[in-house]
Write the structure tokens for this entry.
Amino acid sequence: MKAKKRKLIGEILIEIGIIDKNQLTRALALQREYSHWLIGEVLVKMGFVADTHIEEALARQKTGKTVIKKSKPKEVCADCPAKRLIDKHLREHKRHNDRRRYRTTK
């Protein structure tokens, strides 16, 4: 009998409406830069979720039961340090990819 694959924390938070896919994508991009951070830490630092959301999502991951009340995704303030950091990272990543694409087309 195969073991059931556990859902990822990000998938659980999207499924229950705490974050949206765009927020998870932005958090994952930042996590790639700071690989020692867990995705829950990144989401909290970015202001997308509270610690309690992560704790409850972990409990749901373990038990399979919904314990989090649905709420609308939060938007990060434009002046948030985490948002500035991820925006900078995404700009640098795009610039790097554009340069790489230019070199391969010549």
